[in-house]
């Protein structure tokens, strides 16, 4: 479906550009909302408050999905809500089914941080299956990823914000976008990816904050 995502600004776009038009999973236009809407009166419009950016790539996804356990909300009373690692995971006696369920929850948490791509090699069959079915882009492992702290926030510890972006909201590019409740790149770095209010993957809205 032809959709225009309009916000306060689009990161990396010319001054005055505050909207991205998406059709069939591809970016078809970037520019001022008034111009995009006038040329596409049939488009559905999604309005956001904040900054539209490319989707983020999490370079620590292998560790987050294959060595950490993401508790089910029903386990919160016993296990808490944060990812478990090390001996805490060993004590759970993990099997393939539990690794797969954990990975699904982990990927949902990534989507809530504007992630549209993961980098790394996934060796656990159950995790690999979940990643493939999720639709997230899978990139080759990033050089220097070992120096980045394992985090759901792809912006944590990166040398430059651009290192965390999976692409660019350019015409012809996949419609993988994120919207953050900030005004510019400086505020995004300060606030982190937890300020995400929406994630678009292949043109589909896969996360929207309540």
Task: Give the SSE layout.
Layout: E1 3-6, E2 9-10, E3 19-23, E4 26-31, H1 33-39, E5 44-47, E6 51-54, E7 56-58, H2 61-66, H3 76-79, H4 87-90, H5 96-111, E8 115-119, H6 125-134, E9 137-139, E10 177-180, H7 185-191, E11 196-201, E12 204-208
Parallel strand pairs: 1-5, 2-6, 7-8, 8-9
Antiparallel strand pairs: 1-3, 3-4, 6-10, 10-11, 11-12
Helix pairs in contact: 5-6
Describe it for me?
- It is a single chain.
- The chain contains 7 helices and 12 strands.
- By secondary structure, it is α/β, with parallel strands linked by helices.
- The chain has a 5-stranded mixed sheet, with no helix packed on it. Strands 4-3-1-5 form a 4-stranded mixed sheet, with helices on one face. A 3-stranded parallel sheet has the order 7-8-9, with no helix packed on it.
- A hairpin with a 2-residue loop joins strand 3 (19-23) and strand 4 (26-31).
- The radius of gyration is 18 Å and the shape is elongated.
